[in-house]
Amino acid sequence: MQTGKSQLGFRLDPALLARNFQVLPVAGGWMNVLDIFLSDHIAGMYQRRDRHMVLLIDFDGQEDRLSLGKARIPADLSERVFILGARTTPEGLKKELGSYETIGSLMAKDCREGSDTVWRHHQLQHNAGEVERLRRNVRPILFAPS
Amino acid sequence: MSGMVLELNIIRCIRDKTVLWRRGRCFFDALPGSKTLVLLDGSCIILFVIRRFYIHNFRCLENFELPVSGLSSALLIGDNGTGKTTVGLALEILQKIARRKNRVGELVKPRDFSRGRSDVPMRFEIEIELQSKVYEYSIAFELPEGFKELRVSNERLVVDGKPVYTREVARVHLAKAAQEKEASFFLDWHLVALPTVQEQSTKDPLFIFKQCLARMIILRPIPVLILGDTKDDPMLEPNPEMTNFGEWFSGLLDYAPSAYSKIDLYLKQVMPDWNDIKNPPARKDYSSLIVQFSNDKGNATIPFEDLSDGEKCFMICALVLAAIDAYGPLLCFWDEPDNYLALSEIGHFVIALRRASQSGSQFIATSHNPEVIRSFSDENTLVFHRNSHLEPTTVRPLSELQVKGDLVGAIIRGDLAS
């Protein structure tokens, strides 16, 4: 439940184009995230060519979840789907960085400024490849050019 | 990482001193109990935050304290009848006093005593931090044997620890001010003293405190009653039902004409074909708002009263955002802001209000709606609970309840309060 709360801090960033960002209900478990994506969202993504999706999961120490997840995403959608999450569980992040809203707001700042203050954290650094893709493809959607 | 640690250290150093702001960064929620809002770009901002709100013997609230200190926004959740709306009603009593309604009988009734317990005073205490000063106001009402209307038992206003006035029943004592001697006078015990005690100037803390209470925005809108007519003078004191929307709209634009750009910006986002709003005279003694929509196919002009309930709520939200910008910081208490809104809009709506409040204001919402609940964290969600109608309300931050799994599921199962 808590991993997703960092999205709140992200959404509270004053520079965010908030209406370009929608948060869906918690799916409960990384397999459920993928199952729901495949059953509910594929058609919408073909229909809306500008739609991007971030699947937020807990890796629970198993980094192969990224490749396992990506293998289930249709190849022609893979450019618009991103899988992110904490290496084990997000509680350690909270202990070191502050509340989930604080973590989310720091992530928004990283996204806006191209920095990696949060993403360098050992719980998050394995996301580097996905974060780089996100910056390239999604940042212009979320933040107006300064 | 080092950049962030440095920022947090700066915040800790300055948390009780100057309030700083850097556009785009807010650490307010991260610092529960902090005296200051810390955003960093070198400029000072004004802060309005309730540090303490205590209610005793008022309806279901007994020895009740609302834990919102240090929160720029908070959500009150809990079953029906647990007292969420009652908190808003208690704030409204203080707001009415500040809006010059001083007859006790128009503020509280004998039936407002918790379970009819009229032998114990009903008490309201509020502690507000505003412009680096701490204002403490308390008032207690009692119902002596044979009385039909409650009277003031005691009342006082203290600013930064120094009394402005104290009162015991009918006797009001004014403390010594800079150039004034202390003084006492008698006041009808059925009248509240706060509206009566005169301030020296607009810089007088008494004036500032009254104005901040009077300008609190407490909302329980009833869209069908919002007609958009302006019959009375423009003002900055909307009522909870928002039946004086037209007067507030006019008052806001009179006060700060630039507020229109904020209203326009928000409404264009939620209604892409929004064009503008006008307030032409409808008859001799009042004007009536009309709204214009347009797209590449043409225009449509609609009287305000014919907007949908949800669209009227968008208009209210636009005014709240513009008000925070124009004459904030201020407190906004919105009872069930999700009412009348499309599911896809609820999250955006609440986040817009939360974002606006980060710059020194405070936003408190009540709700049962999953989308609203998902728009707050464990740290700023307060769970109201009441065992039965014979027992008082208790409140705890959600973070103390250690809910595992899906919160909305736990609420539906009734597992939250156990």
Provide a compact summary of the structure.
Chain A has 146 residues and is mainly alpha-helical.
Q: What average pLDDT do the residues of chain A reach?
A: 90
What is the overall silhouette of chain A?
globular
| Biggest sheet architecture of chain B | 8 strands, antiparallel
Q: Major sheet of chain A, described briefly?
A: 2 strands, parallel
Radius of gyration of chain B: 22 Å
Biggest sheet of chain A: strands side by side, in what order? 1-2
Strand order of the largest sheet of chain B: 2-1-4-5-6-7-8-9
Radius of gyration of chain A: 14 Å
- Can you count the helices of chain A? 7
Number of strands of chain B: 20
Helix content of chain A: 40-55%
Q: Quote the beta fraction of chain A.
A: 5-15%
Overall number of strands of chain A: 2
- Quaternary state reads heterodimer
Largest interface: A-B, 31 and 35 residues
Strand content of chain B: 25-35%
Q: How widely separated are the two ends of chain B?
A: 40 Å
Question: What is the residue-mean pLDDT of chain B, rounded to a whole number?
Answer: 88
Number of helices in the DSSP assignment of chain B = 9
What does this structure look like?
- The complex is a heterodimer of chains A (146) and B (418).
- Chain A has 146 residues and is mainly alpha-helical.
- In chain A, 47% of the residues lie in helices and 8% in strands.
- Chain A has a two-stranded parallel ribbon.
- The longest helix of chain A has 18 residues.
- The mean pLDDT of chain A is 90.
- By secondary structure, chain B is an alpha+beta fold.
- Chain B has nine helices and 20 strands.
- Chain B has an eight-stranded antiparallel sheet, with helices on one face. Chain B has a six-stranded mixed sheet with strand order 10-17-18-3-19-20, with helices on both faces.
- In chain B, β8 and β9 form a beta hairpin.
- In chain B, α2 packs across α3, α4 runs parallel beside α6 and α6 packs parallel to α7.
- Chain B starts with a helix and ends in a 5-residue tail after the last helix.
- The N terminus of chain B is likely disordered.
- The chains are: A mainly alpha (146), B alpha+beta (418).
- Chains A and B meet through α5 of A and α1 and α7 of B.
